[in-house]
Amino acid sequence: MKLGNPYGTHRVIEPKGALPQPAKKINNDMNIYSNEILLNVKTLNVDSASFTQIKNACDNDEKKIENMILNIVNERGKLQNPVTGSGGMLIGEVLEIGDDFPDKDLCVGDKIATLVSLSLTPLKIDRILKINKDTDQVDIIGKAILFESGLYAKIPEDISEKLSLAVLDVAGAPAQVNKLVKDGQNVCIIGGGGKSGVLCAYQAKKNAKNGKVIVVEYSKENAERLKKLDIVDEVVVADATKPVDIYEKICDITKNELCDVVINNVNVENTEMSSILITKDEGIVYFFSMATSFTKAALGAEGVGKDINMIIGNGYTKNHADLSLNILRESNKIRNLFEKLYI
Amino acid sequence: MKLGNPYGTHRVIEPKGALPQPAKKINNDMNIYSNEILLNVKTLNVDSASFTQIKNACDNDEKKIENMILNIVNERGKLQNPVTGSGGMLIGEVLEIGDDFPDKDLCVGDKIATLVSLSLTPLKIDRILKINKDTDQVDIIGKAILFESGLYAKIPEDISEKLSLAVLDVAGAPAQVNKLVKDGQNVCIIGGGGKSGVLCAYQAKKNAKNGKVIVVEYSKENAERLKKLDIVDEVVVADATKPVDIYEKICDITKNELCDVVINNVNVENTEMSSILITKDEGIVYFFSMATSFTKAALGAEGVGKDINMIIGNGYTKNHADLSLNILRESNKIRNLFEKLYI
Ligand SMILES: NC(=O)c1ccc[n+]([C@@H]2O[C@H](COP(=O)([O-])OP(=O)(O)OC[C@H]3O[C@@H](n4cnc5c(N)ncnc54)[C@H](OP(=O)(O)O)[C@@H]3O)[C@@H](O)[C@H]2O)c1
Ligand SMILES: NC(=O)c1ccc[n+]([C@@H]2O[C@H](COP(=O)([O-])OP(=O)(O)OC[C@H]3O[C@@H](n4cnc5c(N)ncnc54)[C@H](OP(=O)(O)O)[C@@H]3O)[C@@H](O)[C@H]2O)c1
């Protein structure tokens, strides 16, 4: 068995010298290198921005969605949406562990969730068993490879596989909120009625304590179910692609103070300006949404003369898997809701 | 005279409710609202990422470049490159000031540089006089509008117009470096031989003092002229689109410590992974380059398990115009070089 590069560059076919994530095509041959592991994949959790794009492109037709997913994987060797660039993650069982794989606690048969994006994970799909359009999850028969540097989490005993998968998909978001939000602050979660949004809202309120946590959410249903969780101070039903409207609403609620921290968790384009306008001078916008445009954010802030810090949502930060799973353990209401939505 | 929205939304034609920067088309009628000012434009400084794209699309042919610029402005009412989304800035003379424009010190006849992007500035070009492919500057006969929230700087007495324009175009970059870099740190400037790169390198060394400032630069010429300025500790000639090569070189120079702060100032795509790989755990990457892809950065960092902070380069921060012009006043060597390159 040959030793591969820790970051998986040995599997990049095109362009040469690139890393697997930005690469156009990677090698999904399922014979492992000595520092890789082989997984029997059970379920893919497609990234929300990607799945929304796929559903739209396929007129929500299940057969077309299936073909589109298979075509992407055949062409690229990985499930990377060519439009959004994003992937998702997976759960599966460990089939084989290379001798040089560093984590010696991992055993064949362990159930794990990958914490690196499908947009860089070598994947082979034999068959698609079921597409769940509501949970963004796709059950398959297939295999995948994890590189030496690839992050993963063992599926916990006390939380079901599908629920773990759903939460771990967005684990970076609440963990970053934990690093950013301080007591007494005004915080706004845009798209706070969605999966990552609810987790962020919970964590934001925990950290902001006496501060104010506001959620902007598009649909009445998501807003209602969020209100029932009793975790935030205000829920605004509004369209985040309409910055002037959002700005006026947040001015009202905060008495023109605006927000110290804004977290963007939507799955649609063109919400950068809303996020920027409602942020205080020297405040922070954390863009977790994969539909964020770099130039729209950079030039948008300059265009309105806002001296704010804009952060690119890194899906990884230390301890993110535990922190997000613990939210389910702490909040029965969130756990019950997520069990209804994602299992 | 009617009062316009401070952010210029009254001029957005499509899509409704958007702000001028993300808008597809804005109204470039040159009758001002009462909180706008009208400018007689002399020179456009096209954003480097945009100009590179335009030059490539036009096979570097001057007539084609001219037509492409005119077509963009005719179609959009502003000089926003449809591929990169970016613009640039301009210098001109104040022709008319609306009664409700807030800055009462500004006078008709003043020479100013706009500090908001051309990607949101209503512009009308009567004629293109000269395209300077080396400086990214385009002399025109034409007019532009600045909104109430639009930032600008008066052209200083002691620095020529063209040189001011060149430096103010990238003023955000060294000012952000000033906020991020601390004494003793390892700092790497990727694309540090270019315009914003040189200013960032100077500011980084000023702040890092006993730390180490490393520049990665593509061309030998730019590397040589940078070395002659004597402002940095190491200059590496390498291609930042090749992350593995860059990583190995920076490991060597820093004895595997890597960098506390990485500033990305290139004008080409696919340099996110190089920036990420050479950053220390919990370090900072500041992406000033307009060719940055949000998803490549977000998923790339997760993909290699890097717990780092990635910042979107906001073109504005307080006092950025003065800070960057002062670099020319402090360093004769940089001033002489920039006078050769940009006048
Ligand atoms: N940075 C990373 O590493 C990373 C990792 C995973 C996911 N993500 C990204 O994070 C984002 C959220 O993921 P998720 O799983 O939490 O998605 P989700 O559950 O689909 O949540 C998205 C939420 O945004 C709301 N929304 C949509 N359009 C809106 C609008 N115009 N105004 C206000 N709210 C709006 C949705 O409301 P409706 O349902 O009513 O439309 C929904 O509640 C996605 O973009 C995803 O790609 C990033
Ligand atoms: N965030 C903002 O508000 C804002 C405002 C203005 C500008 N910008 C952006 O900032 C960036 C830099 O602008 P600038 O005016 O400083 O541009 P510039 O003078 O053209 O500098 C770019 C530098 O990057 C180098 N480079 C190109 N490809 C490289 C590679 N593969 N590896 C290493 N170095 C490479 C270039 O070297 P060669 O010349 O040898 O190719 C050049 O020295 C652009 O992307 C621009 O769009 C951002």
From TrEMBL, chains A, B:
InterPro entries: KDD_N, NAD(P)-bd_dom_sf
UniProt cross-references to SUPFAM superfamilies, sorted A to Z: NAD(P)-binding Rossmann-fold domains
Protein name: L-erythro-3,5-diaminohexanoate dehydrogenase
Any single Pfam family the record assigns to this protein: KDD_N
Domain L-erythro-3,5-diaminohexanoate dehydrogenase N-terminal positions: 10-156
